[in-house]
Backbone:
C-alpha cells in the first residue's frame, strides 16, 4: 500500500524522533593529573537499547561512567540528552536527568535495611518539606517511597528480603538490591557497572534475563567483563583501549574487528 | 537507700546533659569525620544569646527557644561558611585529616574570645524556670530538684524527636546515607553538602539546648562549656562515635559512674572516673561499647 506523501512525512518524522539519540557524548576527554584517562570519546545511546562498553582493565570504562555521573571532572566534551545539550551533571542531578547507575563495588549501605537502601534511590522524589520531615509527619510521602522501593525490589525478585540488613546478604543478592536502588527512580538511562562481576553461572543467567527485561523499560549502558553476558544482551558495543574508542558498532561487527581481537577479545574469543 | 535513689536520679540528670553534647559531637563526626572542638564554643555562644533573650524578655522559655534556634543557625553557618571551604581547599596530603580538627580548635578560641569581648568574663547566671531546691522524699530533702526533672524530660523528648527524625523520615534516611557513603548518596540524588549542613544545625541546636539546661545549675562564662565538651567527647567515644544510641548510652554510663564514685568514694573523683572509663573502653573495646542496629522495616 502506498502512503500519502503527508502521512509518509509524519511517519518519517516520528521514526526520526523515536530514534533520536537519548544520550550522546561527543569528544569527551578526562585527565587525571598528566594521565589522559579518556581522549575524544564519542558514544550514543538510543531508546530501549543496550549498549556495551568493553575494554581491558584501565581502558577508561568506569571513568566514562564517572564523567557522566559527575564523579570525575570533564576536561572537554559535550553531552546531549534527548537531543538537547546539557552541562555535565553533578552527581545529585542525575536522577532529575533520568539517569541512574550502579557501582562496581555494589555500594550498599551496610547498616541500613534492604528497603532503606532502595528507598534512598527514590529520596529525590520525596516532596515533604524540611519541617514536616523533621517532625516525622511526612507519612504519606514515606508510604509512597516505601511502595516504590518495594515495587523495585519485586522487579529484581528481592521483595522477600526487604527487612534484612544489607550486611547480612549474600553477594549475588547485594547485586540485585543495588539494581533495585538504581531502578527505583524510574530512570530512562541505566548505567550498569559490571553487574555480573563475581557472580556464579546461575546468577549470570538470571542477570542476562533481567537486563533483557530492563531494556523494554529503559536504555542501558553496560560495562562488563563477562563476554557471554555482553554478547547476549547488547545491541551495540563500544570498545575502549587506553582511553580511546578503538571500535564500535553491532556486536558481530565488533567481534570480528581485528583491532578489538588484538587489544581485548583475544584470538580464541 | 535514699542516698542510692538520689545518686540514680542525679546520674540520669547529669548523664542527660552529657548526652546532648555527645549527640552533637556524633552528629558532626558521622557527617564529616571531624571531632568538632568548636562545639563548646557554639554551645556557649548560643547560651549567651539565650541569656540575652532571657534577660530582655524576662522569660526563660523564650531564651530557651532563642538558644536552640541560634545554636542551629550558628551550626549551619559554621559548616556553610567555614568548614565547607576548608574541605574544598584541603583535598590531599597529610594535612587532610588534621586541618579540619585544627580549624575547629581555632574556631573554639575565636568564639570564646568574641563572647568574652561582648559579654565580659564575669560569671553570669540564668534563673531556672522551676525550683532548683531538692525534692522532699519521705521527709528528707534529696539532691534532685524539679529543675533536674525538667532536664531529664527535655533531653528525653529531644532524643525521641531525634530518633523519629533519623529512623522514620526521609530526611533522616538522607542524613544516614550521607554519613555512611556520601558518594552513593550523591548518586541517589541527595545533596550531601546541604544534608551535612542540616547535621551541623542539629548539632548546634543540641549544644544550645545543653547550655540552657546546664547553666541554671552552674554559671555562664566563656569557658563554661569546656567541661561538657570533655565529658560529651568521652561519652561519644564510649558509645563508638558513630552511633547516636551509643552517644546517649555512653553519656548515661559516664553520668552514673561519676555520680556513684563521687557519692560513695570521694567528691574529688569526677575527672579521674571519667578518664579511667575512657582508657578502659579504649583498651578493651576501642570501637566503642555500642553500635546502631535498628533499621526501617517493611
Residues:
Amino acid at each position: 500500500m502506498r502512503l500519502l506523501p503527508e502521512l509518509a512525512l509524519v511517519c518519517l518524522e516520528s521514526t526520526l524522533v523515536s530514534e533520536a539519540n537519548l544520550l550522546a557524548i561527543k569528544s569527551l576527554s578526562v585527565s587525571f593529573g598528566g594521565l589522559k584517562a579518556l581522549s575524544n570519546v564519542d558514544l550514543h545511546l538510543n531508546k530501549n537499547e543496550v549498549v556495551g562498553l568493553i575494554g581491558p582493565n584501565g581502558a577508561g570504562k568506569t571513568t566514562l561512567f564517572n564523567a557522566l555521573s559527575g564523579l570525575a571532572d570533564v576536561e572537554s566534551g559535550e553531552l546531549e540528552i534527548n537531543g538537547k545539550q546539557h552541562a555535565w551533571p553533578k552527581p545529585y542531578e542525575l536522577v532529575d536527568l533520568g539517569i541512574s547507575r550502579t557501582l562496581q563495588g555494589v555500594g550498599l549501605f551496610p547498616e541500613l535495611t534492604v528497603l532503606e537502601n532502595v528507598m534512598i534511590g527514590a529520596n529525590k522524589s520525596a516532596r515533604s518539606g524540611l519541617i514536616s520531615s523533621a517532625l516525622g509527619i511526612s507519612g504519606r510521602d514515606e508510604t509512597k517511597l516505601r511502595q516504590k522501593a518495594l515495587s523495585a525490589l519485586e522487579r529484581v525478585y528481592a521483595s522477600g528480603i526487604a527487612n534484612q540488613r544489607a550486611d547480612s546478604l549474600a553477594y549475588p543478592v547485594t547485586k540485585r538490591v543495588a539494581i533495585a536502588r538504581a531502578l527505583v527512580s524510574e530512570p530512562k538511562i541505566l548505567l550498569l557497572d559490571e553487574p555480573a562481576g563475581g557472580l556464579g553461572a546461575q546468577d549470570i543467567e538470571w542477570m542476562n534475563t533481567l537486563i533483557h527485561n530492563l531494556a523494554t523499560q529503559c536504555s542501558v549502558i553496560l560495562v562488563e567483563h563477562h563476554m557471554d553476558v555482553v554478547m547476549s544482551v547488547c545491541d551495540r558495543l563500544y570498545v575502549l583501549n587506553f582511553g580511546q574508542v578503538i571500535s564500535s558498532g553491532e556486536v558481530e561487527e565488533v567481534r570480528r574487528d581485528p583491532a578489538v581481537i588484538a587489544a581485548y577479545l583475544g584470538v580464541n574469543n | 537507700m535514699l542516698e542510692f535513689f538520689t545518686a540514680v536520679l542525679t546520674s540520669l540528670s547529669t548523664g542527660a546533659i552529657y548526652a546532648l553534647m555527645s549527640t552533637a559531637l556524633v552528629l558532626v563526626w558521622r557527617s564529616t569525620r571531624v571531632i568538632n572542638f568548636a562545639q563548646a564554643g557554639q554551645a556557649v555562644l548560643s547560651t549567651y544569646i539565650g541569656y540575652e533573650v532571657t534577660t530582655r524578655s524576662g522569660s526563660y522559655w523564650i531564651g530557651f527557644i532563642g538558644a536552640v534556634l541560634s545554636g542551629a543557625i550558628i551550626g549551619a553557618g559554621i559548616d556553610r561558611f567555614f568548614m565547607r571551604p576548608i574541605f574544598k581547599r584541603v583535598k590531599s596530603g597529610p594535612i587532610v585529616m588534621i586541618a579540619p580538627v585544627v580549624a575547629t580548635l581555632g574556631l573554639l578560641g575565636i568564639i570564646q574570645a568574641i563572647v568574652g569581648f561582648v559579654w565580659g568574663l564575669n560569671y553570669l547566671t540564668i534563673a531556672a524556670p522551676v525550683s532548683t531546691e531538692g525534692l522532699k522524699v519521705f521527709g528528707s530533702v534529696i539532691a534532685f530538684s524539679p529543675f533536674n526533672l525538667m532536664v531529664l524530660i527535655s533531653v528525653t523528648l529531644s532524643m525521641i524527636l531525634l530518633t523519629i527524625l533519623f529512623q522514620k523520615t526521609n530526611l533522616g534516611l538522607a542524613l544516614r546515607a550521607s554519613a555512611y557513603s556520601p558518594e552513593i548518596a550523591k548518586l541517589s540524588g541527595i545533596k550531601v553538602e546541604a544534608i551535612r549542613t542540616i547535621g551541623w544545625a542539629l548539632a548546634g541546636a543540641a549544644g544550645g539546648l545543653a547550655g540552657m539546661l546546664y547553666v541554671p545549675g552552674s554559671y555562664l562564662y566563656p569557658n563554661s562549656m569546656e567541661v561538657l565538651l570533655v565529658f560529651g567527647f568521652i561519652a561519644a567515644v564510649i558509645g563508638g562515635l558513630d552511633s547516636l544510641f551509643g552517644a546517649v548510652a555512653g553519656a548515661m554510663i559516664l553520668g552514673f559512674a561519676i555520680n556513684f564514685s563521687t557519692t560513695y568514694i570521694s567528691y574529688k573523683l569526677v575527672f579521674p572516673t571519667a578518664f579511667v572509663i575512657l582508657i578502659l573502653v579504649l583498651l578493651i573495646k576501642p570501637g566503642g561499647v555500642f553500635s546502631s542496629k535498628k533499621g526501617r522495616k517493611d
